[in-house]
């Protein structure tokens, strides 16, 4: 008997698949604007200096590789919750919030999906249209009913009115996923006024917000990017936050993240956390230790934290400069206005507005790789190649 006989092939991941395609391209002039990783001016994804120093300390001081508990590294959890919610958050004082360490932000989303499926049966989840493609599959895989609210339309503009109108029609009590900052894939973020209006609708419809916070520090700054998360945590009794250390600590492959839960009181938090530990046990048992230990070392040490915050700020500024640089480089082709949105979007990604066909041509004719939706990882642009990139874009837009 051939057990695997009926198994068919599925298409590769639309984002991770680009890593292999890019590697296989022998064109020396190739440009990788696919997967969301930051690259320095040398085209390298660096290990942050703060991370190297923390790793050295760990090598010198670590005494065991025994398991960490179901919620992960306690120091990491405490410091990360402070970074996200603010060290002076009343939720921390009142012990109404706790972080469960997960394998990356993706792990936090998967844990959330299973938590909703197990503990809040029947609740649908609503995603922005468009959103990160893995949001779609992660919640569907957990058996949740997935719906969409409008966010960026075919005119490649943020449509807050349509978003609010749709949220106002959601079934009472459903879960709504919001991107804290640096919306993936579009780069279009809500203003503080927009967030206040979203909060009102969330209250009116008694929705449970799940805020995905994967890019803290890459939008307007470490504190500024946390503004909406902190507003919701302050104003609502219950909130789920998925936090990732992949980008802002450059710990991509170490799979470091957390699900932060905010509850109405300390007792309820214990109930919820017991469920999370039980679900996590069946998913990955206990989380990987190294990345979280590194983050804990950094956030728990004033000098290391300052160094790290400076490094995040340098990455953020470079991304902003690349955005402006690309718009400028498009100027000679009469395309600066058409692509002006690249300058106002935030974070690593830009929804360029290029069509799938144009994206395909960029790849086939110029070895420029971006996601088929037209999402470009601005943080992957080589500044010395801005003119080449602008010329290629102009050619496919002609
Ligand atoms: C991305 O969207 O490119 C990143 O979040 C990496 C990933 O896992 O897809």
Automatic annotation (TrEMBL):
Homodimer. Belongs to the class-I pyridoxal-phosphate-dependent aminotransferase family. Pfam families: Aminotran_1_2. The keyword Transferase applies. SUPFAM superfamilies: PLP-dependent transferases. CDD domains: AAT_like. Gene3D superfamilies: Aspartate Aminotransferase, domain 1 (3.90.1150.10), Type I PLP-dependent aspartate aminotransferase-like (Major domain) (3.40.640.10). Residues 30-393 form the Aminotransferase class I/classII large domain. GO terms for biological process: L-phenylalanine biosynthetic process from chorismate via phenylpyruvate. Signal peptide: none annotated. This is Aspartate/tyrosine/aromatic aminotransferase. GO terms for molecular function: identical protein binding; L-aspartate:2-oxoglutarate aminotransferase activity; L-tyrosine-2-oxoglutarate transaminase activity; pyridoxal phosphate binding. It comes from Pseudomonas cavernicola. Its cofactor is pyridoxal 5'-phosphate. The keyword GTP-binding does not apply. Keywords: Aminotransferase, Pyridoxal phosphate, Transferase. GO terms for cellular component: cytosol.
